[in-house]
Amino acid sequence: MSSVLTIDVPPALWMTSNSRLHWAARAKRTARLRAIGALEARRQHTPHYQGRVRVTVTIHQRTRRRIDPLNVAPTVKALIDGLTDARVWADDDATRLLGPDIRAGRPDPTQPTGWHRLTITITEEDQS
């Protein structure tokens, strides 16, 4: 079983490893992203997985600017925690979750300036 979840992240919530945010501002963004992850999982009817899953996150920006996919780990981590809150999987530890594998995707010029679209692909691993 496999599913795809699409989440649009506004510039006010976008975090990278290079962001120099006050701890309180970072915590507030993290909490909001986590809530968005849970809400979108429910809204998009993401199934619940019992076994081990592989997670791939593809980042789509508005332009063809260079991007370092691993820099968006703080944003992705908050969204993954939201999926855990929505019970998409029992926990996001290494025994249940492979990844997330974060990749750059094709630009999407239809997005508003500063927004990023994250496509989260969840694939159930073969348990044999």
Key words describing this protein structure:
26% strand; four-stranded mixed β-sheet; 128 residues; alpha+beta; 27% helix; 2 helices
Give the SSE layout.
Blueprint: E1 2-9, H1 23-43, E2 53-60, H2 73-85, E3 97-104, E4 116-124
Parallel strand pairs: 2-3
Antiparallel strand pairs: 1-4, 2-4
Helix pairs in contact: 1-2
Which sequence of SSEs, written as H and E, runs from N to C? Answer: EHEHEE
| N-end to C-end Cα span | 14 Å
Strand order in the sheet with the most strands: 1-4-2-3
Helix content: 25-40%
Low-confidence stretches: none
Radius of gyration: 14 Å
Mean pLDDT: 93
The largest sheet is: 4 strands, mixed
Number of extended strands: 4
How would the global form be characterised? globular
- Kindly name the structural category: alpha+beta
Could you characterize what this model shows?
By secondary structure, the protein is α+β, with helices and mostly antiparallel strands. The radius of gyration is 14 Å and the shape is globular. The model has no long low-confidence stretch (mean pLDDT 93). Helix 1 crosses helix 2. Strand 2, helix 2 and strand 3 form a beta-alpha-beta unit. It has helices at 23-43, 73-85, and strands at 2-9, 53-60, 97-104, 116-124. Helices cover 27% and strands 26% of the residues. The two termini are 14 Å apart. The chain has 2 helices and 4 strands. A 4-stranded mixed beta sheet has the order 1-4-2-3, with helices on one face.
